[in-house]
Structures are given as structure tokens and as C-alpha cells.
Specification:
Strand content of chain A: 15-25%
Oligomer: homodimer
Strand order of the largest sheet of chain A: 1-3-2-4-5-6
Number of strands of chain A: 12
Distance between the termini of chain A: 45 Å
Helix content of chain A: 40-55%
Largest sheet of chain A: 6 strands, mixed
Number of helices of chain A: 12
Radius of gyration of chain A: 21 Å
């Protein structure tokens, strides 16, 4: 049994400025002040995810690499982050619990107040063996964990990228009242793919009210497809998005909106950021962005993320994050009874 | 039925320089000369994916947005790319086939020579409805397509990001002889996650020969974990990777290698690129890299991609790409009988 790397406890507090991370800043950027509290049982895992988040423009409140847990463990840290004002959602990477029963109770307790997204590795016996070499933890039965986490109202991340994808939506967006999702896009293909993903994740395509459809149709070109997915087509500018989004955000048949922005198309200018920020302020309804591309897209990703509008590089990821919002909305109702 | 965007046929030939894409280059970067031939039934989808690929350093041979297919369709383009010297793997985004039977025969024919990765949208009836608005295609039964593609030896992409993730591995890496995979890492957590993903994708964790293990152990610090996953731990430099990788690449028990590079850790310098390029030249065995992070990582991603070493932002994606290599290796054997 070797416990080398994880011996070291790393702490990063974006608000107080405490930073005990060894990696130099040219290798690992530090995230801005943000709303995600992050607990990791692997230091290098934490470093890589934080570096990614910082570059995307996603902020963090506190990061704690819990090392080999001589003094404090994930249960203590969950309790701490539960009461941390800056933390709106908690992300956890865990190889094995030190105190299983206490963890379950704490997760269930915290879930009443804040969403917790947890990535538990060690699903296979091969990985469980690897865990015993890495952190010396007992990985435990994967099925047992799965049931425990579900009962506690914890949102399961299934891979490394899920962890912040889901936490980011939960930290920044309001919870939906239902599971009827509207897609608004300037590219037909991505609209179709988003539809497939929404259905796959067990949500429903919203059926906008007839009045909503008519209102939009009266204001935008007839060649756009005002339905769901709503294809504003390739020459859509920010104004067309604004008309469409303002209407669907007000529609009671719509619980949440996935906006697809393909910045490669010339009509879409940077003022789309203002449009989305203003919508976020006016409507208490989740709005997630799907956008993919190169540098020009990356610039807009950072702008949006800094305004608390989560972005996703694929329709599937956006749908998965929306599903986490739907799931946590239900969990809150269940646990508060 | 509206067929607006996809009316326009877009062509990009990285070798001849032909470029009929409307999007300006500051919005959509053009990929370098490369080995992936890309056929898309959605222009905007193609634009977004190409922009992403260009920024990653992934090259393309030809890109054809087939529009509304008045003259040529996906079957013709597959035939064309089959005989295109620069194209080593073909990526296809399809909403609905124009000539189903001809497509099946062409896919099966091409698969004997070159791998084809295909993303077929329209799994749900909701998405099928959206497709009829977008390209006016008949989406067809999802289950029917699934069976057809499998029989034809086509590799299925399940989301937008899969398409180039899988094509990239198939275009640049040799096919594995079996399905036993070795993981080499400088971060324990990512090693565990890669193990979970390898098992999930139906492959096996390789059991390196005792001699391989001993050879590596004799040359690197005792606190490293020489197993599978092989955790070279946080202070691993390029030399330690070289020793480990050179040994496992020669091991007959190992069919393919996933190398995890966490560039946040200070000991790992840029000369790791040379190590991997040199290994690629000396061994006829697939090697895929998993690396995630910010700008410093992105710089290394571009270097590796330009050398034909595919990189993945998560262990799951790397394992999925390795699975595509394993699958196509089997397909080649099956179809050549």
C-alpha cells in the first residue's frame, strides 16, 4: 500500500487568498472567486479540474484536497462547505469513504440546503484494486454506493467532466419547476442532437403555448422554424434570439431552456452575451448554453461563465446538466417533506 | 418543410486549398492538412466541429457539407473519400439517408479499407420530427439504423464530440491486436478513473509480463506503483515515462496504452512530446493520451495532435477512442474473410 501523493493536503480559498497548492501558476491557473466548493481525494485530479475551470472562466469558492485524512475527512469538509456563504454547490471526488454511515447522513443533511455532485471512482474490481494502491481506501461496493448516494439526494457524476459540468449549472441557475425543455438554436443539426439528448436523459421537449409561437412568428423571418427545437437558422442575430428567448422564458409550458450558439455563423455578434445576462436577471428559469468551436467561441465561453451562465461543449453535456437541475429540484421537494 | 441552411454545399480541401465556407476565419479557424475526411449533412455542425478541430491541432483532409443533396449525396462522397489518398478515416454526420440500401453497401465496402465513424441523429421521435423541418430527410427507425451500421462495420458516434474523438484515433494510430489495455499515469485518481472506463467499454486491463514489471521497477523509484494502472506518481518526469512506456509497448500482453499526462505537476516537462513521438515511430501499437487543464495543457495538446498522437480531455473519452480501435480491428478481420 502506497500513499504518496495524497498525503499532502492542498487548500485554495478564492476569497481569503489562502493557496497551499504546489503547482506553479504558469502550469495551473487558479480559478476566480466563484460558487463551487470542491473536495477532492486526489490532489492531481483537483489540480487538473481547477486548471480547466480557471481557463473556462468558472469560479471556485474553496478547494480542499483532503489527502490521507488524518485530521479531517470528506464528512467534516461537507459540513464546513454547507455553512460557507460563498459556496452554492459542492463537488466531490471520492475513492472510498472513511466513515460510510456518517457520510450518508451528512450528504442527506447538506442536500436539503445545497446541491452536492459526487464522482465516486472504483466501479470495477480492477479500479477498486487500484484505489487501494492510490489512497489506501476501501473502495466499497459500487452498487451500495449508488443506492446510498441516490437515497441521500446526491447527484452522481459518471466521469471527470461531469463533476464541474453539473456543479456549475447547480451553482448558478435557478431550479426548474418541471422537466419540459425548450431548445433555441441557430444550427439545425445541433438542435436535433439536443432533442435526442433531452429525451435520452428522461426529460420532455416543451410544447410552447400557441400564443408564444404566434408572438415569435410575428416578429422574425418566416423561414425560421418556430417550434421545439426552435431553429432561428444561420442568419440569426442577437435580436432574433432575444425575441425568441424572451417569449419562451415567459411561457409556463417551458421549465428550462437550452440555447445553442454557433459563433461560427456571421450574424451572431458578441452582444448575445448582454441578451443572455439580461434574460437571466428578468426570469427565474434555468438557461444553459451549448457552444462549440475554437478561439472565438472560447472568448464567449469565458464571458458567459463569468456572468454565471454555464456553457457546454456538446448538446449531450448541456442536456445532462439540465437533467441535474431537474433531479435536484425533485430532491429538494422530497427531502423537505 | 424548410430547407434553408443545408441548401448550401460547403467544401474545404486542406490539400488543394479549395475553401467555399462562408464563415470568416476569425470566427471559424480552418484545420491544417490532416487525415480525417468529414461529410456533414448540417453545415453549421460541420463548421463548429472543424473550428474546434483546428484549434486542437487536429487536421482534416476534405470537408464536404452535402446540403440538400440535389447532385451528390453521402454515398457518392463515401466512395470519393475511399479513394482519396490523404484520407485515413472518415467521419459522417447524418440525419437521414437518401438511398438506404446503397448507403449500407457503400459503408460495408469502405469499412474493408478505411474506418468510418458515423453520428446518426434522430433517435427519438421528437428528433425525427425536427429532422423533417431541418433537412427534410426521413430520419428512419433508430433501431434499424443501429443494426445496419453495426453490420456494415461502421463505428457509431453517440454524440457530437465522439465523432472526431473516435475518427482521430482511427486516422492516426495502428490497430491493436487484442483488447488488453495498459494505463500509465502521474496522477492516481485519473488512473483509477481510466480503469473504470476501460472495464465499462468492455476491454480488459492488461497484465504486463513479470519481466516488464521487473525491468521498470529496477529503474524507477520504489514509491511508484508498477502495476496497471501504473502510477508513476506526481514527481514523474519524461525519463520515468520513457522507461515505463518503452517497456509496456514491447510487452506482448499489452494491446494498447493510455498515457495520462497531468501537466500541472512540476516534474513533467515539454520533452514528454519527444518521448511519445519517438515511441510512436518505434512501436506498432496504439497509444492515446489523456490530459486535461488550461493553457499550458492546451499548448501540449496542439503539439501532440500535430504529431498524430490523439489527446482526450477525460479518461472516459480516451477509453472510448481505444474501444473504437479495438472494434475496428475486429471488423477488419471479420470483413476480410
Amino acid at each position: 500500500m502506497r500513499i504518496i501523493g495524497p498525503n499532502v493536503i492542498g487548500i485554495f480559498d478564492a476569497y481569503s487568498g489562502v493557496d497551499t497548492i504546489f503547482s506553479p501558476r504558469y502550469r495551473q491557473k487558479r480559478p476566480d472567486q466563484g460558487a463551487i466548493g470542491f473536495i477532492s481525494q486526489s490532489g492531481a485530479f483537483g489540480a487538473a479540474v481547477m486548471d480547466w475551470a480557471a481557463t473556462q472562466g468558472i469560479g471556485v469558492s474553496k478547494f480542499i484536497s483532503i489527502g490521507n485524512r488524518i485530521d479531517v475527512d470528506e464528512v467534516d469538509m461537507l459540513k464546513y462547505l454547507e455553512n460557507d456563504r460563498e459556496t452554492k454547490a459542492i463537488a466531490v471526488y471520492l475513492e472510498g469513504a472513511k466513515r460510510g454511515r456518517a457520510l450518508f447522513h451528512m450528504l442527506r443533511h447538506v442536500a436539503k440546503k445545497k446541491p452536492v455532485v459526487l464522482l465516486k471512482s472504483g466501479e470495477s474490481s480492477e479500479a477498486q484494486h487500484a484505489i487501494s494502491s492510490h489512497t489506501g481506501s476501501l473502495a466499497g461496493e459500487a452498487a451500495l454506493y449508488k443506492g446510498m448516494l441516490k437515497q441521500a439526494g446526491t447527484i452522481a457524476a459518471l466521469c471527470s467532466e461531469d463533476l464541474f459540468d453539473l456543479s456549475n449549472a447547480l451553482a448558478h441557475q435557478p431550479l426548474p419547476r418541471g422537466d419540459t425543455i425548450q431548445v433555441v438554436t441557430n444550427g439545425g443539426g445541433f438542435g436535433v442532437l439536443a432533442t435526442d439528448s433531452i429525451v435520452k436523459y428522461g426529460m420532455k421537449m416543451a410544447k410552447p403555448d400557441r400564443k408564444t409561437i404566434e408572438k415569435i412568428k410575428s416578429k422574425i423571418p418566416a423561414y425560421a422554424s418556430v417550434a421545439n427545437p426552435m431553429d432561428l437558422v444561420g442568419d440569426a442575430d442577437s435580436e432574433r434570439y432575444k425575441i425568441a428567448l424572451d417569449a419562451v422564458m415567459q411561457d409556463k409550458n417551458v421549465s428550462g431552456v437550452i440555447v445553442i450558439l454557433l459563433m461560427q455563423l456571421s450574424a451572431l455578434e458578441t452582444d448575445i452575451v448582454n441578451v443572455l445576462v439580461s434574460l437571466k436577471k428578468r426570469h427565474e428559469k434555468p438557461l444553459l448554453v451549448c457552444t462549440t468551436g475554437g478561439e472565438f467561441t472560447a472568448m464567449h465561453v469565458r464571458m458567459l461563465e463569468k456572468e454565471g451562465i454555464p456553457t457546454y461543449s456538446s448538446p449531450k453535456k448541456a442536456a445532462h446538466a439540465m437533467k441535474a437541475l431537474v433531479e435536484y429540484s425533485r430532491t429538494r421537494k422530497r427531502l423537505s417533506i
